[in-house]
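EI: anyone free to look at a 548-residue chain?
SC: sure, send it
EI:
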Amino acid sequence: MFARRLAFALLAAVVAAALTLAGAAVLGAEGWSAWKLGLLACWAASTPWTGICAANGIIGFAILVGTRDPVGAVFPESDAAVPLPPIAIALTVREEDVREALRPVRRLLDELDAAGRTFGVFILSDTESPDGIAREEDAVAAFRAADADPGRIRYRRRAENRGFKAGNVMEFLNHHAAGFEFFLALDADSEMTASAVLRMARAMAADPALGIVQHLTVGRPAAAAFPRLFQFGMRAGMRVWATGQAWWQGDEGPYWGHNALVRVAPFRAHCRLETLPGGATILSHDQVEAARLCAAGWAVRVLPEEAGSQEAHPPALPEHMRRELRWLAGNLQYRHLLFLPGLRPMGRWQLIQAIVLFGGAPLYLGMLIFAAIGAATGGSAAAGATAALILAWMAAIYAPKLAGYAQVLATPELRARYGGAAPFAAGAALEFAFSLLLDPIQIVAKTLCMLRLALGSGPGWTPQNRADRGVTWAEAARLLWPQTLIGIAAFACFAAASWTAVLLALPLAGGLLVAIPFCVLTSAPRAGAWLREAGLAAIPEETPIRPA
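SC: here you go
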């Protein structure tokens, strides 16, 4: 594993160094100025993450197209006949539509029963509102009444939501998990098949040192335009990313907190989370739990297989941003945990990677600001060289997604699952444009959130809306006026310099100018209906197989 990690690190470092040197060459070709130095500093500081993206994309793509069994290359298979111990399904909910959350659990139970496997079900609630509690209790009663063995279904609602979701799970393990060796962690939007769950269970039963099996999770079929486009690109990128990362991380992989199988005893013994300095609760609990489990000698392994594991993505941009900012606040807390005693180097790296995932947002915004200042003050750089640099950066930062698209187009079986090459390529092109518009909107939002956190504002723990909805112009304007003003100011500077500067900036920052209409349009029912009718950004679960 050392050789693999060294190869990954060298590949990432080469990409980062090449981009840094190329940026210095382009910016310094006509002399240096303050704005160029500022831009280069932000650029150079961002390249390590760009290198990580490129390295995972290259490695993952090589495994996916170069091996007969890509999953087997990074995830050891186990004997199908291995006996399985008692397993619990733990579904965590908070102010959710529990009837909807239980539908996929019912399908899973039916499949498991048909396979001759009996699982216990625990519905772990942190709901506080009286109306929500009443609806929840009614939904659980109906779910239990419809089951052939109602006694296996247990419902518990905490009176005090200490520790948020992680506290809820640990309380379940402390007081209600007796007799179970494994538990399946599910969120309210999780959906898994029996074959996927049993595959994880066989792997864990065959390897007594395996503490967590984290299944790759893809988006459910979606009607609204925003989640439909988002999950189309996320699916391509995560397949490549997870495969590449699993190759060099091995038994010290990540845990995402849901759609995963967990061994009860070591998790209960080693993953109890204390509060942070100052008394704050750890929000992003999952990666800390994985790091502590690995530190205690247990393996955490990712199964990079798409089939059988799904989740629902947020229905519109406002919900997506709220989720991203909640994750940002949680990941940035990891700075307090980097020097916890006993963690393995890979465990510390997982925490650093989680911080960098969100922490680079101010660097990208800084690049835009310095470039706009340069344009407004008469600075310039060679247009052709700048365009080439931008294309190289895009190829590196989006490498996992682009590699995922290339894999589908290069594989007849995958092309057929997506309905053929032409509709898939059209969906990929549309999604890539969607990502280019979305990313600068998120960069501004994340930077502003980091400023609020620095000033003492907390992220809160708000319930998630998972239902499709439209977004009004007024709501979009209230949410996205900072992006719009920054975009107008930046492009006014670029326009004052030249139309070439405007064209160069459009792919990277054009989303700021159209943030408000982008938010409204991607939530509009007509937009989702048009995508569905045109067969664009369709995933295999909703696509009839056509000749490749």
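EI: The chain has 21 helices and ten strands.
SC: 👍
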